[in-house]
Amino acid sequence: MKKHLIFIFILIVFHLSAQAQIVPKDSIPNGFLFGLGVGVSQPGGILNDRFTTGGNLNFNAIYRAKNNFMFGLGAEQLFGNHLKDTSLFQSLKNNQGVFIDNNGVPAAVILTGTGFTLKGSIGKLFTFNENKNTGLYCRLSLGFLQHKIKINVQDTKVPGLHDEYLKGYDHLTNGLYTSSFIGYMFLARDGRFNFSLGLDYGLGFTKNRRSWSFDSNSIDNSSRLDHLLSIKLTYFLSLYLSNPEGDNYY
Q1: 204: Cβ–Cβ under 8 A, 6 or more apart, which residues?
Q2: Cα separation, 109 vs 190, whole angstroms
Q3: Cα dihedral 206→143→39→231 (10° resolution)
Q4: N or C: which end of the chain has fewer CB within 10 A?
Q5: Interacting residues of 136 by C-beta distance below 8 A, sequence separation 6+
């Protein structure tokens, strides 16, 4: 699915790039920016106790106003984190710390982290010379964060790790999410090469949403502060509606 979305995005980029027009340096055209980005995320706080560093794939749709304020919606997929605290599954392992399947032989179980964010944002591009399309980009976002332990049992069945029992171990966690981004944004005058590169810090106010945790044999109602520090590189497709002189950009 991810590969298909990326392929479609690339086709749209080539199609619209062929129709690009030159934007004057000192003008700020209003219109839309559609972004596809990748990054590396480092968990912090108690989230770092659970997961290692991972990757992220993000999508953004932004409206750029003529005063360089930007209003957007974004979605982000978190992936590739390995589970640090494997003691959560200790009751399902033998004395050697190995998962055993229904046939009594060692089983391959891959434990990783997965999650996503959904956000609305407001930002501004601060420029420091006559070029009004390149400079310091700052953004504040508010939305939703969810993450859980992804349990992948390879080609076998392990007692306790199937069907509804998985929910007792995956620690599905979600809640309110805030984030701030600061970095460099370059918007080409011909609209063909637009990108941003910077740091994104996120803080989630979350809770475990499962009714019971098998590893602790209890209900986990504790509040969490989940930190995420990310480096993000995003390519933007521009679709400007007009420039200050009223010329159309399609």
Answers
A1: 47, 145, 175, 176, 177, 178, 224, 225, 226, 227, 228
A2: 50
A3: -80
A4: N
A5: 125, 126, 128, 182, 183, 184, 185
Least confident of 5-19, 103-117, 138-152: 5-19
For residue 11, give the H/E element and its range: helix 2-17
Whether pTM exceeds 0.90: no
Q: Which two tokens stand for residue 250?
A: 């399609």
In sequence order, the β-bridge partners of residue 39 are 56, 232
Structure tokens at 147: 């993450």
Q: What are 111's two structure tokens?
A: 């434990």
pLDDT in tens, 201-245: 999 999 999 998 888 888 988 999 999 999 999 999 988 886 555
- CB-CB contact of 57 with 76 (8 Å): yes
CA–CA separation, 12 and 129 (whole Å) = 31
Contacts of 8 (CB under 8 A, 6+ apart): none
CB 90 within 8 A of CB 100: no
DSSP 179-238: EEEEEEEEE-TTSS-EEEEEEEEEEEEEEE--S-BTTTTB----EEEEEEEEEEEEEEEE
Paired residues of 45 in beta bridges: 226
